[in-house]
Design brief:
Length: 347
Amino acid sequence: MAGVLCACLALPAPAPAIPRQAITGKLSRPDVVVVALAADGSASHATARPAFRLRPPAETVTLQLRDRAGTYLGPVVVTGGDGRVTLGVRAGARLGRIELRNGYARVGHVPAPRSIDSRVTARARGGKPLGVGNLGLVPGAARGRSAPGTDPDADGIPNKFDVDDDGNLVLDTRERSAVGQPAGRPADGGSRDEDADKADAAFIIAIVAAELAAVGLLWQVLALRRRRRRRVEVDVRLGLPIYPQGGGDWSVFVEVLNASEHPVRWVGAELELRDGRRLHLMHQPPGGELPAVLQPHDSHQTWAPCRILEPGGLDLTRPIVAIAKLDGGDVARSSRRRLVPRSAAKR
């Protein structure tokens, strides 16, 4: 026993495993979970804030994205274009900025060759993997090893997230329900087929609902942008102010309308000439309303006499733009227009 103990003590201790180099990058949106998925299905993850840093479970992985609630957001494309893209990422890769798109993400600049494993590829159209948008339910031929982290039908969606990992357009859940079905049980088989049909219908309904939700969200974003662009409207025109004591000169009027549902503070007015120069309306005439707080759906105006503006370069026959400066640095512009037609000026 003493000899055995001495022999055990003489054996060298196993060398500690050297940790793999971390993969780094920066997503265009924060709070997205980045998953490094190895071919055998092992994975590590990190939350982008928007930068991320994670140690992969293998020397070569693919990067998959999901939100914090667990919804799958798609793979990260490293490089490639129409026809085929590369998804393989090596340990230690520095990917830089990654742009999150609809159903997948793409590295902004092609990283160094040592960061890419060009053996891991997928079929694509316009740089977008074919399986994106429908969870891999696309036709294809399965080749090579099948494991949770591989992609036998090369549609860009690994088996772990692919609903049809062999590309035969039959849901994997339905195929698995048919495996090992005992003979001579037609009633049971019919019930299983019926259940599979229900699962297919539910899956299709879920896809349609997701697409409709995406279209509705896009419509809301576009409507919000239009409302933001039109929240303050500016108009420029020629007018003659009349004072109780008499007198008055032809002047350029700038009117600002608050078309939003919130008060807006108007702090400055300018006239932009055709050559790009700007005339700042510094002096406010009697009755001018600048600066001012515009309540929702209310308007205010200011003006300046033409005899003061013309020496600064104003030509009433040439188009000008009125600019309203708002508190916080925002600006609103009028449409470009002539205050006096050229024909009227000649007369």
